[in-house]
Automatic annotation (TrEMBL):
It comes from Christiangramia lutea. Belongs to the short-chain dehydrogenases/reductases (SDR) family. It holds the Pfam family adh_short. This is SDR family NAD(P)-dependent oxidoreductase. The keyword Oxidoreductase applies. Keywords: Oxidoreductase. InterPro entries: NAD(P)-bd_dom_sf, Sc_DH/Rdtase_CS, SDR_fam.
Length: 249
């Protein structure tokens, strides 16, 4: 049975992926900062599969490396890495953007993804096998008004995804990105700093993607035969044509 490590497993896309993987019997390492949610997941999914939880902030390099190094032997061989932890912080024009928000997005979405990958890739190289899925975004394919730094962080994920695939080529490791469009999770609550009215509006008037839709796609990606690598997959709600064109009722 394969072992999957999912960052950002306490909510949204990561949580739905954990639930989906557990139902298929994959061994799980679930990561996030909210301990209570991690424990709830361990209790609920632990009846279906083996679950180990790791609490770390992806921004803290030493914490990331030590946490992953602390894995018990039965969880050490990670077959699948889902680099999912991330968020947008703010939606402001560049001239009024908040520098703490910029730091958060670059530190979490870009550097955090790199730190986690750095901790896991050596084991994959040793075993000459593994599968890395980087969660990008339509925001990493097309810049939208006020998206500036969030888009930059997701363009970086796109570049890192390509770079990883090139550098790891020939080592039995598959690398690919899944790039969702508008997906109804806690994403907009975080972006708008808990302003739930503003957050809800983002998904009103059309049928947004649900995190289960993305989990379903991630499960499809990881269950392709070994010679098939889905390198870059973009998925939007049917009502969405681009980052800025969404057909609303
Ligand atoms: P959620 O806010 O629902 O989930 C974000 C997850 O990331 C949480 O589990 C959170 O866990 C974790 N996380 C955030 N910051 C940190 C941190 N510093 N250290 C460790 N974990 C962290 O959002 P989504 O599920 O929507 O987002 C998941 C990914 O999908 C992100 O990369 C996002 O950019 C991407 N995405 C989302 C889209 C959408 O429309 N929702 C569309 C395209 C891409 P905790 O707070 O417990 O640490
Ligand atoms: C999330 C999609 O359009 O809200 O990455 O930025 S969007």
């Amino acid at each position: 049975m394969k072992t999957a490590l999912i960052t950002g497993a306490t909510s949204g896309i990561g949580k739905s992926t954990a639930i989906r993987f557990a139902s298929e019997g994959l061994k799980l390492i679930l990561c996030g900062r909210r301990q209570e949610r991690l424990e709830e997941l361990k209790n609920s999914l632990g009846v279906e599969t083996s679950v180990h939880i790791l609490n770390f902030d992806v921004r803290k390099r030493e914490e990331v490396l030590q946490s992953i190094d602390s894995l018990p032997p039965e969880f050490k061989n990670i077959d699948i890495l889902i680099n999912n932890a991330g968020n947008a912080h703010g939606l402001e024009p560049i001239q009024s953007g908040c520098m703490d928000d910029w730091d958060a997005m670059m530190d979490i979405n870009v550097k955090g993804l790199l730190y986690v990958s750095k901790a896991i890739i050596p084991g994959m190289l040793e075993r000459q096998s593994g599968h890395i899925i980087n969660i990008g975004s339509t925001a990493g394919k097309e810049v939208y008004p006020n998206g500036n730094v969030y888009c930059a962080s997701k363009y970086a994920v796109d570049a890192i995804n390509q770079g990883m695939r090139i550098d790891l080529n020939g080592n039995g490791i598959r690398v690919g990105a899944v790039n969702p469009g508008l997906t109804q999770t806690e994403f907009s609550d975080v972006r708008f700093k808990g302003n739930s009215e503003k957050a809800e509006k983002v998904y009103q008037g059309f049928e947004a993607l649900q995190p289960e839709d993305i989990a379903d796609i991630i499960h499809f990606v990881v269950t392709r035969p070994y010679h098939v690598n889905i390198a870059d997959l973009t998925v939007m709600p049917t009502a969405q044509a681009s980052s800025t064109i969404v057909h609303k009722n």
